[in-house]
Amino acid sequence: MKYRNASEILPDDLLRELQKYAPGEILYVPAGKDRKKWGAGTGARHFYDERNAEIRHKYFKHREPISSLCDEYGLSDETVRKILYRV
Q1: Please, what sign has the CA dihedral across residues 53, 58, 62, 67?
Q2: Measured between alpha carbons, how far is 16 from 20 in angstroms, rounded to an integer?
């Protein structure tokens, strides 16, 4: 994210309108709504969804202990519990 002076890019009437609401403040302008969700472009979301499904399957179907899942996946006890009980 980079800083740009609003007076250099906005029309004068829009700049004056913004100054009514936030004079001298720094504003964040979010990107458009067509932005991808986290991990969608890299495949990370798919990877973690599959890993979490495996963890749930091993715990609920095969009764593997949480400590064993922590060791196998390199996760903390708290993280495994969050995965198991997330609604």
Answers
A1: negative
A2: 7
One DSSP character per residue, 23-78 reads TT-----PPPTTPPPTTTTTSHHHHHHHHHHHHHHHHHTT---HHHHHHHHT--HH
Question: What is the Rg, in whole angstroms, of the alpha carbon atoms belonging to the chain?
Answer: 23
Q: What distance in Å separates the CA atoms of residue 25 and residue 55, rounded to the nearest whole number?
A: 47
3-state secondary structure of 4: coil
Digit-coded pLDDT (tens) for 22-58: 999 988 888 777 777 888 889 999 999 999 999 999 9
Task: Take residue 44 and report the two structure tokens written for it.
Answer: 């990370």
Q: Report the distance separating Cα 56 and Cα 64, nearest Å.
A: 10
Dist. CA 43–CA 55, nearest whole Å: 19
